[in-house]
Amino acid sequence: QTELAAQLLPFENLRIKVTRSAFIGFGLAFLAIIFFAIAQTTGQTVFFVFFFIFLLTAIVFIVIYYNRRKDYIAGFKENVVHSIIKFIDPNLNYNPYVHVNKNDYEKSGLFPKHTDRYNGDDYVEGWRDKTVFCFSELHTEYKVSTGKSTTWHTIFKALFFIGDFNKHFHGRTYVYSENNPQLGFFTKMLNSFAWNLEKVKLESVDFEDKFIVYSSDQVEARYILTPSFMERLVKLQDLMGPETSYSFVDTNIYVAVPIENALFEPSVFSPNSYAKLGDYYNTVHIIFDIIDELN
Length: 295
Hints:
By secondary structure, this protein is of the alpha+beta class. 50% of the residues lie in helices and 24% in strands. It has helices at residues 2-42, 45-88, 102-108, 182-189, 205-210, 218-224, 227-240, 274-294; strands at residues 93-95, 117-128, 131-146, 149-164, 172-177, 198-199, 211-215, 245-249, 252-257. The two termini are 32 Å apart.
């Protein structure tokens, strides 16, 4: 904790500078708007002069704010977050600028809707016991164009996990929670013969109350979803949230984990407390819980 506190101190000083730049920049922009309104009302040139002075100064400080904010976040991740992850497990590798490959995301089949914009960060990879895994934050979107306007809609924005299941799957099996918003679109896709998927009926009442399963191989799906494994998935859903979904393709298990906040983003307008740092620790341990339950 002492070592971590020493690492936090320079970034706390930088955070304060970032916050100060934001308050000054946006404060000056607010004053510029006031002077513009007065100038429009009175028609006096002096107020237009004040408007341009405050506007230009505001732009300078806002540019400074965004540049400082970018440097602050990058430095925090490269130093503080990296140290926390290495403390949790030295075998983990962390890169704040990389994300899960788009091909892997598409291969999972969890989000069949076409992706027009694909972004992410905070990539972590490593192994635990016999399981090789990786995960990152992802934000995928599709666009809707109407005339000259284009709007962007989120498909998935959360944590995406890939783990080597140490078994080869001949078919494809998908496990969705009952209230997952993707399920409606996924169900429509089943009307296409190309998907060749059927709903799987299982014996666990608790599991079927929470999940719907589709697979191209009914026998293999039941082989994967043993009674004990279904029990573990129910437990994981209680831990991670009701919209968690899974797929089993080739040798991998893919897990889409809903997380409200960005994975490893530092606070900008409030101090980074030890409680906040504990969230980073808990995020990695959610992944460990997934691996431990699946092994």
